[in-house]
Give the backbone structure.
Amino acid sequence: MVVGPCAEESKAMPIIQTRDLRKVFRSVKRTPGVAGTLRTLFSRTYEDKVAVEGITMAVDAGELVGYIGPNGAGKSTTIKMMTGILVPTSGTVEVAGIVPYAKRRQNARNIGVVFGQRSQLYWDLPLVESFELLRAIYGISPERYRRNMAHFTEILELGEFLKTPVRQLSLGQRMRGDFAAAMLHDPHVVFLDEPTIGLDVVAKEAIRTFIAQVNADRGTTFILTTHDLADVERLCKRIVLIDNGTVIFDGPLERIRERYGTHRVLVVELADAYPGFAIDGAELTGREGNIVRLRFDRKAITAEALIRRVTQRYDINDIRLEEPELESIIRRIYVEGYDDDAASLPAAKA
Amino acid sequence: MTLREAAAPYIEFARKAFSREATYRMEVFTSIGSLLIRVYLLRMLWTALYAQNAAPAGIPLHAIITYSTVALLMSLILEVDGTRLIRERIREGTIATDLMKPISLPLYYFSDGFGQTVFHAATILPSLLLALLIVHVDVPPFPVLVAFVFSFVLGYLVNFVVNFLMNAVAFWTLETFAIQITVRWISDLLSGQIVPLIFFPGALQTVVLSLPFAAIYSTPLLIYVGTIRPDQYPAAFTIQFAWFVGFAALAVFVWQAAERRVVVQGG
């Protein structure tokens, strides 16, 4: 096992700490039409857009946090402030004890970044040349370079295409190359932005296994931004949910499941048409021919009791129970907002 | 950190740019081909012009052909757009990933451009040999040659900072094509690359010789053909150096404003 420098990091102090982090973008307000365009050339009115509104969060060394939110929620703005390429409007941010925007280059030595949509590899040159360049950029010692390269080549199976120009690599191979590139200098914190986007199932799994393994072996902290919640389910114990620039949930994934995962769906294929089909204690949410969907609250009625009710009154051919997917839970939270109590007790809402 | 360690990334950037250019071998052949056509056309043009009017500004025909040919060889290096990386990175948004590296971006772009230059410089000798089949090129005494190379290096630096500034405009406009074309056109004319600046009439000549563009082509070339005499070298070098320092200071200022704009406005 290879132990990076972050494994010795004290667990007592959070590696990332933000307090009331806020970012407001100011842009010129444009008036439509030719006259409006001319007017904006001479007199400008500005409009402020709040991208991040008071985010306070702490991430401990070695955590693997899913940073989730709809498009435009403020995810990448937060990440940009943590990587030091954006100055906050107010509030504080510290990564590994450094204020990123004040010491961009020093902060850069502590972090690694992977963008699924954008490669940091040299397009025209063989993959290995990008690694050599990074060795020079970060001043990685020959011994450490050899060790890390051997390790990554093995677990990411880079060997077969190290000498291939990057532009000839498949997306999956390129992403594996990008991961090795981001990890070569043993960063304390790695920011992943949509790392599995566009990958096939096998390549996705290879990437997820790699992240989990590096997190376990080296104690590297990961902040994972993604729209693929399967990534989050597979990797993260904790998720931070943001919407409209504010944190709407921060805690273990389990808690969301407990709060929102109480509703399940019973799918029943009826033996006959039964025009007036209805069941007490469950809501009919869909009907297609003889197949009906019944949504019920696990805490109000057990699946067993509900099935008994159905079979007592109707003849059925088939029956199936659906667990709520994380994706539909999250979608519901975006729409309704996170509510710690009401979600578990739908009756109390009314 | 030792100087060697600090320089290591930039040396590596230059080497990578060199290898990258080398992957486009076809481009080298086409650029040499186009150069030879231009050498031939300029010889025809000057010969025809001189048939009408013998030796304007006291420059004989063989000197003007030498001048144009050396100017074209210089353009092999000076027309390498080493700073195009800046506007490409801005347009593609990859400037954000560059900023997440512990490096100075202007130095990165300079070393990348320098690596490209070194590669294209290697094509100068074969180009010269081929050009000699078409035209006769005068070779000045060795000390003059040394002064020419020194002045050329200063011209290269002035050219780099001018291009750098032009590309840095992309931080505000994203698109710099119109600016590029305009500046390139003005620069070609006023730098003395096509027509020696001493052909310009009286007052206009004084003006164009005092513009920064003259520091790029005109000064080294006039040293080469002997119009600028050895006792005038110190003054010529000083002016070139002053343009470089002035523009470099402006470039640093513009770069800081640009970087501030990115980190405040999110690019």
